[in-house]
Write a structure and sequence with these properties.
The complex is a heterodimer. By secondary structure, chain A is of the alpha/beta class. Chain A is built from 8 helices and 6 strands; from the N terminus they run E-H-E-H-H-E-H-E-H-H-E-E-H-H. Chain A has a single domain, classed as Flavodoxin domain (Rossmann fold). Chain B is mainly α. Chain B has a 6-stranded parallel beta sheet with strand order 3-2-1-4-5-6, sandwiched between helices. In chain B, helix 22 links the parallel strand 5 and strand 6. The chains are: A alpha/beta, B mainly alpha. At the A-B interface, helix 2 of A face helix 24 of B.
């Protein structure tokens, strides 16, 4: 599987957790890593370029810190501009059918905070619902999010371990050691368009 | 005591230059006229403070030599090649026709044909020193008229050499040896070889020897050695040229052209520029003081007749040539007024002819006085052309009236369609916005119309024109011209008469921005500010700063600096207040940028989480 990681952090200079994750996956064959804020500092996303980049990969990873219970702005802008009707969804919009989406996020707060009773009042799974539905509408498989909670409070070795696990997962996907369909997010049912595309791919 | 004499002389000349040049420049008359006037005042006719004018003259002619070296430096060989047609076509015709016309007039006036021919050739020369200095001062060297004028001057300088060779033949007598070059004793073929050898030496040395020499000299890091080397080149070539009997000006010009491609061209220019300026100043003062006013007293009619006669003849010939070569009317006027005087080479030729017995002493005196007076008149003539004729002859001739404009539907009116206005028009047009452009560059207008732009010829500060362009119904008025004063004038007119328009303007710099803001212009854009901010942003990125961070830093800086300009505009004239604002502003921007990159911020990975104390 060819993997495309779109990374977004508006203040990379201060980042610890995201930087560790980024370093862990840098320079690997078959894993394309791109920094959206570096490529589009003025947020002028090039839709054609991004679409052809998507076509050349099988798994899209959105890697970013969780900001305001969502993604940094450039990721939202990227989704708005690139996933066009008739391309990613709607009539004739079948280009992403059969591909996979993975959210790789870091949060400042601990896991307990993301709970009905926690101070953030929602489980992370619920906060990521927009990505869940985006994947569904685009006929993609939505993988179990990779999350690093409260990474700044981790010991360096522990953070390194988390980053290594992230790397192992992506490399495993790349090499086919992990079958992405076995790593779908809990409770995510593949959309019919995904199944059709997969059946079509198997037949041909 | 010779040193004291030298210093006194230097003091007089320098003082005259320091007083006269700024005064005349301030009056808009140009420095050349200032030097000439200073010379007249210092000369024997008024104060009598200058010593032997001829000594000073030969020293000052070196200034012309340096000047031609610098002119050569500006001209790469390819550019010179491009000029070959005007140099040899226009130039040769000017010399031949002018000499014929003046010689003919002299014949009619009853002079012998020999004197007529000598006078014709002598007076055909124009003053390279005065004309080039004036053209440079007014920034006209690169214009069509400037190029043609330069071409003619160059040909004249070159033609002095054959003329000097011709005069002894006319005299039909042996040339006194002391008048000639060191090579005179050699047989003819050897002289030719020596001349060609000298030229070849200059070209080859310039091509192959100078670059390593410059590098070596520059490597010493002793600045005055470089200056000395630059002077050495010019002095050396002058000597060499004198040795083989060629024009020193021509030799240095050639050397300049050869060195125009060299890496050290700009250093040479910078080092020699002050010498050239000073030497020329001395030259002009010497010309001024050399005018023999006694002749004016004893035979005013003849002298003034000669001056007017030959200048008018020159002017007519130049005008005819300009017409033949299809110059535009404004260029033709500038060209003929620029060259209608006698030149410094006339002094050389007259002295030579006198030595050969071709001219009588009184005839020579008359010619020298006439040439000197014409040189004094030259800057005045150019000034008159500049102030009185040029405005009327503006591109495409005096008949070009403002276009009749009937625009009722333009949303935007743009004054000025240069590099600045063009971008605006293109972007507006690409977005289907209707705009009208007013400009006064006729050539450009024709070109733009071919591409379907709505461009009109006219002065954007004129009310009737603005109305015709649709100022009453338009929404935005853009001032995109590069003339600071006119931009302000247009802004004032537009704001006063069409208060509904949003006026945005291109500002030259900070001070101009203050002026425009104070005039009430709504949007003021310093013309290179945006670009330099963009460059700084990309430099930050190139240094490894994250592009998004650099982008934000640039945007913040820009917004901040624009706020600063607006805040400062109110205190435009209050220097201390301005300094205070700037100082405070500098501290503020540092603070803002530091905050933006997060140095004063809290842990950004947690910034979007609820505060920790709630956890308890």
């Amino acid at each position: 599987m060819r993997i495309l990681v779109l990374f977004a952090h508006p203040k990379l200079r201060q980042s610890v957790v995201q930087r560790a994750m980024l370093t862990a996956i840098a320079g690997l064959d078959g894993i394309t890593v791109r920094d959206l804020y570096a490529e589009y500092p003025d947020l002028m996303i090039d839709a054609r370029r991004e679409q052809s980049s998507l076509l050349a990969h099988d798994v899209l990873v959105l890697q970013h810190p969780l900001y305001w219970y969502s993604s940094p702005a450039v990721v939202k802008e990227w989704l708005d501009i690139v996933l066009e009707e008739g391309w990613a969804y709607g009539a004739g919009g079948n280009r992403l059918h059969g591909k996979f989406l993975l959210n790789a996020v870091s949060t400042g707060g601990p896991q307990e905070a993301y709970h009905d009773k926690g101070r953030n009042r929602f489980p992370l799974r619920a906060l990521l619902a927009p990505f869940d539905q985006t994947a569904y509408l685009c006929g993609m498989g939505w993988l179990e999010p990779f999350v690093v909670h409260a990474g700044r409070k981790l010991e360096p070795a522990e953070l390194g371990g988390r980053a290594q696990r992230y790397r192992d997962f992506l490399v495993g996907l790349r090499d086919g050691r992990f079958e992405p369909q076995n790593h779908l997010a809990e409770g995510y049912a593949l959309p019919p368009s995904f199944r059709r595309a997969a059946a079509h791919a198997d037949a041909s | 005591m010779p040193l004291e004499e030298l210093l006194t002389g230097a003091f007089v000349y320098l003082a005259a230059a320091v007083v006269a040049a700024p005064l005349f420049a301030r009056l808009g008359l140009g420095s050349v006229l200032g030097y000439l006037a200073a010379g007249i005042v210092l000369g024997p006719s008024v104060l009598g403070l200058t010593g032997e004018a001829t000594d000073v003259m030969s020293f000052a002619e070196f200034g012309v030599t340096v000047m031609l070296f610098l002119v050569g430096l500006e001209l790469q060989p390819e550019k010179l090649w491009e000029l070959r047609k005007p140099i040899f076509g226009l130039g040769s015709l000017q010399v031949v026709l002018t000499a014929a016309a003046i010689g003919g007039a002299a014949l009619l006036a009853g002079f012998s044909w020999l004197v007529a021919l000598v006078a014709g050739l002598t007076l055909a020369m124009s003053s390279t020193a005065i004309v080039l200095q004036s053209l440079n001062e007014r920034g006209l060297m690169k214009t069509a008229a400037g190029r043609s004028t330069f071409a003619v001057l160059l040909f004249q300088d070159v033609s002095v050499i054959p003329i000097l060779a011709l005069l002894p033949l006319l005299a039909m007598q042996a040339v006194p040896t002391e008048e000639t070059t060191a090579l005179a004793s050699l047989p003819g073929w050897a002289q030719t070889v020596a001349v060609l050898g000298a030229v070849a030496l200059i070209v080859l040395a310039g091509r192959f020897l100078m670059q390593p020499l410059f590098r070596w000299v520059a490597g010493t890091h002793i600045r005055e050695i470089f200056v000395a080397f630059a002077l050495l080149i010019v002095v050396g070539i002058t000597l060499l040229m004198h040795l083989v009997g060629l024009s020193a000006a021509l030799g240095t010009f050639l050397a300049g052209v050869v060195l125009a491609d060299s890496d050290y061209r700009h250093e040479l220019e910078m080092d020699l520029e002050p010498f050239k300026g000073l030497l020329l100043a001395v030259f002009f003062i010497a010309v001024g003081s050399g005018i023999d006013f006694t002749l004016l007293a004893t035979m005013p009619g003849v002298l003034l007749g000669t001056v007017l006669g030959f200048m008018i003849l020159k002017w007519v010939v130049l005008g005819l040539l300009a017409a033949t070569f299809k110059m535009q009317r404004a260029d033709a006027s500038r060209f003929s007024f620029s060259l209608a005087q006698g030149g410094e080479f006339a002094f050389v030729l007259v002295a030579f002819a006198l030595g050969l017995g071709l001219l009588a002493a009184d005839e020579a005196g008359l010619l020298v006085a006439a040439v000197a007076i014409s040189m004094a008149l030259a800057p005045l003539l150019m000034l008159a052309d500049d102030k009185l004729l040029q405005p009327r002859l503006a591109p495409q001739g005096a008949k070009r009236a403002p276009d009749t404009i009937d625009e009722r539907d333009a949303e935007v009116i743009i004054a000025g369609h240069g590099r600045f206005g063009m971008t605006i028009v293109r972007l507006l047009q690409a977005n289907g916005r209707r705009s009208v452009v007013l400009d006064h560059d006729a050539e450009q207008i024709e070109a733009l119309r071919k591409f379907g732009y709505r461009v009109y010829y006219g002065d954007a500060s004129r009310l009737d024109l603005l109305e015709a362009a649709g100022a009453k119904t338009a929404k935005v008025f853009v001032i995109a011209i590069d003339d600071r004063e006119r931009a302000l004038a247009i802004a004032e007119t537009v704001l006063r008469h069409f208060p509904h328009l949003r006026v945005v303007a291109r500002a030259w710099d900070r001070v101009h921005a203050y002026q425009l803001l104070n005039a009430g212009v709504h949007g003021v854009y310093r013309e290179v500010f945006g670009t330099s901010v963009d460059v700084a942003r990309d430099v930050l990125t190139a240094l490894g700063q994250h592009p998004f961070e650099a982008q934000r830093a640039a945007a913040l800086f820009k917004a901040h600096d624009e706020r600063l300009v607006r805040a400062s505009a109110a205190h435009q004239l209050d220097q201390t207040k301005l300094i205070d604002i700037t100082r405070a502003g500098r501290a503020e921007i540092a603070n803002v940028l530091a905050q933006d990159v997060g140095e004063k911020n809290r842990d950004p990975d947690r910034a979007w989480d609820a505060p920790e104390r709630d956890e308890a």
